[in-house]
Amino acid sequence: MPECPVSKVAGEVAARGAPGLIGAELLKLRTLRSTWWALAATLLTGVGFGLLAGLSHRNAYPGMTPEQRAADDPLFYSLYGLTLAQLALAVFGVFAVGGEFSTGTIRTSLLAVPRRGRLFAAKMTAIAVPACVVSLLTVLTTYAAAQATLGPHAASPDEGRTLRAIAAGWLYLTLICLFAAGLSALMRGTSRALAVLLPLLFLGSQGLGNVPVARTVLQYLPDQAGMVAMHLADEVRDPAFARDYGPDTALVLVVLWTLAALLAGYLTLRRADAE
Amino acid sequence: MCRVIEVRDLTKTYPGGSREAVAGLSFTARPGRVTGFLGPNGAGKTTTLRLLLGLTRPTAGEALIDGCPYARLKEPLRRVGALLESGGAHPGRSARDHLRWLARTHGISAARVAQVLRLAGLAEVADRRVAGFSLGMRQRLGLAAALLGDPPVLLLDEPGNGLDAAGLRSLRETLRKLAAEGRTVLVSSHLMAEMALTADQLVVIARGRLLADASVREFTGAKGPGALEEAFLRLTGGE
C-alpha cells in the first residue's frame, strides 16, 4: 500500500480502533428515539404483564381443583410477561440494524468503516450492551411484579430452579435481541425483518408449538426453546407443553439460532452491494 | 499515486441488468483541479462513484484512490471525503449527532464537528433532526460529513441537487477553493453550464462508456460556457 499523507488537521481525541467503532455504534443507538421507546416498552410490557399474570392467578386460585393446584407452577406466572416483553426488545434489534438499510445510513457507515466484518462486529457488540442491561432489569422487575401480585402463591426466590429460570430469561432476552439484529442484516431492512420476526415470536408464544403435528418441528424454534429455558413450557402444568428437550438443551438451541442469524447477517453484509 | 483517483477498464453488470451499468471505463482525476464527471441520467455516474467507494464491487477492472481500493484504506475519512445522493443521514438523528458518530469512528474531535457545521452553514440547525431538513440542507450536511476528516480527495455525487442560486454559487466557490488547496475533487453532475463554471477537467460518459476526457477549454474552445452544452448534447446524442 502506498504511503500517502493522511490529514492530521482534524484533532484526535477519542479512542480509535475497536473501542472507537463500538463507541460510534453506541452513539448511534443513543441518538435515536426509537431506541429509548423500544427499551422502555420492553421493561413496561414485562412488568405490566407480570402484574396481570400474578393478579389473575391469585383470583383464579380459589376456583382451582386440588389436582390443578398440585400441578401448578408459580414460576409460570412470574416470568410469563417476558414472552411479550421479548417482542419490544426484538423490535429494538430490528430498528438498530434494519433502520440503517431502510434509511440509507448503511452507505455512510460503510464509508467510515469499509471493512464490513469490523462494522458488523462493532454494531452487534453495541447492541448487546443495552440488550444485556435491559434484559436483566426486565427479568428482575417482571419477576418482582408478579411475585407482588401473586402474594401467598409466590415462588420461592432462593430455589435453584427459580434462579436458573431467571438467569435463563436474562440470557434468552439478550440473545433474542441479537437474533433479531442478525436477521435484520440478512433481510436488509426494517419492514422485511419485522414481517419474518413478529409472526415467528408472536404466533409461537400463542401456542403454535402445542399443535401436535406441528410440534415435532416447531418446538425447536427460538421462542419455543426460550419458553423451555425459562421453565414456561412445563408439561406437569399443561401436557400440551411437552417438549422433546430440557431447559439446558433449550439454551443451547437459542445460542445456535442466534449464531446462525448473526452469521447469515454478516455474510449478507459482506457479499451484497450496498444500494 | 497519491491523491489520484484512477478508474481502469471498470465494468459493472448488475444481476438481472439488461446491459452493463459501467462498461470498460477508464479515466484519472488529478490533484489541484476540479474534475467534472458528466453524463445524462442513467449514464453510470453514481455506479462509478459507488465502485470507487467500495460500496459496490466491480465485475471487472479497478477503481483506485491513492493507488488502493477504498475498502483497504486505513482511516478512509481522513483520505477521502464522499457525498452520495440524499446525504446518507438517518432522518431521526440531528445533524450534529450524525457527524458526531462519524467523527467517533476516526477519533475526530467535537471541535472539528462544530467547525464543519459552521462551514456548511448548518450551525443554527445543528441540533434539529434531519427529517425536517430540506434537500439543500441535507446536501450541505453531506458536504459537512465529506469534509469532516479534512481529506485530500473528494468524491461528490450531484452536490448541487436541491441548492438555490446562492447555494450553488457558494458550492462552486467551495469546490474551487478545495482544488486550489491541492485536493483532488471529482464532482458528478448532469448540469453542463454549472460544470463549465466549476470544473477544470471534464470526463463525459454515456451508457457506461467514456465519451470524452478533456479540459473545459478544449471543450468550449473560445466560445464560452454555452458551447459546452452543445458539445455535450452532440456527444451524448441528445439523450
Automatic annotation (TrEMBL), chain A:
The keyword Transmembrane helix applies. Keywords: Membrane, Transmembrane, Transmembrane helix. Pfam families: ABC2_membrane_4 (PF12730). The chain crosses the membrane at residues 36-55, 75-99, 120-145, 165-186, 193-213, 250-269. PANTHER family: INTEGRAL MEMBRANE PROTEIN-RELATED, MEMBRANE PROTEIN. This is ABC transporter permease.
